[in-house]
Structure prediction request, 220 residues.
Amino acid sequence: MLFFIDTANLDQIREAAALGILDGVTTNPSLMAKEGITGEANVLKHYRDICEIVGEDRDVSAEVIATDFKGMVEEGKRLAELHENIVVKVPMTPDGVKAIAHFTEIGIRTNCTLVFSAGQAILAAKAGATYLSPFVGRVDDITWDGIALIKEISEIYDMQAYETAILAASIRTPLHIVQAAKAGADVVTCPLPAIMGLFKHPLTDIGLAQFLADHKKANG
Ligand code: E4P
Prediction:
């Protein structure tokens, strides 16, 4: 399972990249706004900066703002031209699916976002999306089961031999990451605290303290 970080914060991306386990980055308009990145020139520069930080062969999802087919295609092409790492993120709407099918035809990679059902997952796969982003946390927020959705889509994609990769998004906790892996996600995109939470185990801390104490006692 690939590990992406879900942020537009450059320091957090650097920190995750330094761990040596980062495979890519996802952003969305809310995350860009949170970093105060406004105006097309600044937005494009920010995407380029992210691509440079993560290095070669690390996918960076950049989301279109346009909602009509023509606008999505024009914007998506501008984003894709920015850097070879860019994957154009497109919302799950009829125009979005049409744009994904068009991007697939002309060789531009896509991430179909705002996915909340298996039916939507089938549409995105039929259009040839590179990635599919089901929002685990937001499904949980309405007391449905986000991880069950990942499992359902994984079963369908396996059965139908769809090539679209399942990118579990809206991940909120370290447990979500483990559950997404068990449910068959190909990729998980997470905020930095959820990634760092995976490291935590009291027995690791106790064991390390004991090893160091024993070494000190023996070596003075
Ligand atoms: C990722 O691609 C999504 O935009 C993101 O994971 C949404 O997460 P949230 O539900 O925590 O905002």
In short: The chain has a mean pLDDT of 98. The beta strands are 2-6, 24-26, 59-63, 86-91, 110-115, 131-134, 165-168, 187-190. The radius of gyration is 19 Å. Residues 6, 26, 28, 113, 133, 135, 137-138, 169-170, 189 surround erythose-4-phosphate (CB under 6 Å).
